[in-house]
Amino acid sequence: MARMPALFIGHGSPMNAIEDNAYWRSWAAAARALPKPRAVLCVSAHWETAGVAVTASERPETIHDFYGFPKELFAVRYPAPGDPSLCRETAAIGKGAEVELDPERGLDHGAWSVLGAMYPGADVPVVQLSLDTRRPASFHYALGRELAPLREQGVLILGSGNMVHNLGMIDFHRSGGYDWAVRFDKELRRRILAGDHEALIDYESLGAEARLAIPTPEHYLPLLYVLALQEEGERVALFNEETLMGSISMTSVSIGEAGHPIPTGSRFRDCVATKDRGLHRSRSSGCRRDRRNRSSNPSSHTSRCRLSRCTRSMSRSTCAREA
């Protein structure tokens, strides 16, 4: 079996799940460019735990881990099956951490908002891997590296977050990014294309703009899981290279060879890196999107969006999250 590519998706607002915009279309195009996976292992910014866990449900529920959004978003159901065998494989493969099985956890919007575009039939099994954000970035990169054998088994490893993510500075009325956010996103892209993973792991040393762009690590860490999977000489591509609402980057990353050409409208650019390692309305047949009254402008909803509340596993607390 050919090695499955890996993806990091800048998922942005949950509204991208039901808006017919360039991001939703690019996620769908990315899926068409890949071989159909046996299953998806998703590392989402929206599942933080004390320790590391994987979802173990055969029928994971759709979690609406936000508030203040239109009722259409709460009507989304993504009924993809779980994959107990992949769950067990993932738990066994991680040597650097004890991985627990969580039979009750469902799929959060970091997973289903993206997968609804990629696999709208909800016919690809999905397992989620949690983030222990108490651990350093190097821990997450190392754990991501341990997942590499799953690519040889047809598993798509998907990171879902945002490289630049500062909700405290967000401006819902602004279409582009603040100067510092644009500069830092560009710096991260430069280092990704250069294969400079050591600097990307040690992101806190990249200066004051890093502290603005990544005030908390949960949206950045999924990127490291995907970068860790890059083999020597393996192609890396960037798409959706944009910064929105002042302080949110939509930049996304593909690792490995796609099976089909990527449509040029997805704004891909790529290089071969040589690196020194350091939505849907519920239907029984799957997932459906209601596109009525949806704008093609990706920031059209921002004037009415408010911060969401994402339920976090760690200490059973809650935190303000929107994207």
H/I helix tally: 9
Report the span from N to C terminus.
Answer: 35 Å
Structural class: alpha/beta
Tell me the β content. 15-25%
Helical content band: 10-25%
Work out the radius of gyration: 18 Å
Would you identify the regions where 5 or more consecutive residues have pLDDT less than 50? 274-323
| Sequence of strands across the biggest β-sheet | 5-2-6-1-10-7-11
Largest sheet: 7 strands, mixed
- Written as H for each helix and E for each strand, in order along the chain, the element string is EHEEHHEHEHEHHHHEEEEEEEEE
Give the beta-strand count.
Answer: 15
Mean pLDDT rating: 84
What form results from the Cα inertia axes?
Answer: globular
Topology of this structure?
Blueprint: E1 6-10, H1 22-33, E2 39-48, E3 52-55, H2 71-74, H3 84-93, E4 99-102, H4 109-118, E5 126-131, H5 137-146, E6 155-161, H6 179-194, H7 197-201, H8 208-213, H9 221-227, E7 235-239, E8 243-244, E9 248-249, E10 252-255, E11 269-272, E12 281-283, E13 286-288, E14 308-311, E15 318-321
Parallel strand pairs: 1-6, 2-5, 2-6, 3-4
Antiparallel strand pairs: 1-10, 7-10, 7-11, 8-9, 12-13, 14-15
Helix pairs in contact: 1-4, 5-9
Note down, in words, how this protein is organized.
- With 323 residues, this protein is an alpha/beta fold.
- It contains 9 helices and 15 strands.
- It has helices at 22-33, 71-74, 84-93, 109-118, 137-146, 179-194, 197-201, 208-213, 221-227, and strands at residues 6-10, 39-48, 52-55, 99-102, 126-131, 155-161, 235-239, 243-244, 248-249, 252-255, 269-272, 281-283, 286-288, 308-311, 318-321.
- It has a 7-stranded mixed beta sheet, with helices on both faces. Strands 3-4 form a two-stranded parallel ribbon.
- β12 (281-283) and β13 form a beta hairpin.
- α1 (22-33) packs across α4 and α5 (137-146) runs parallel beside α9.
- The longest helix is centred in the middle third of the chain and has 16 residues, at 179-194.
- The chain is globular, with a radius of gyration of 18 Å.
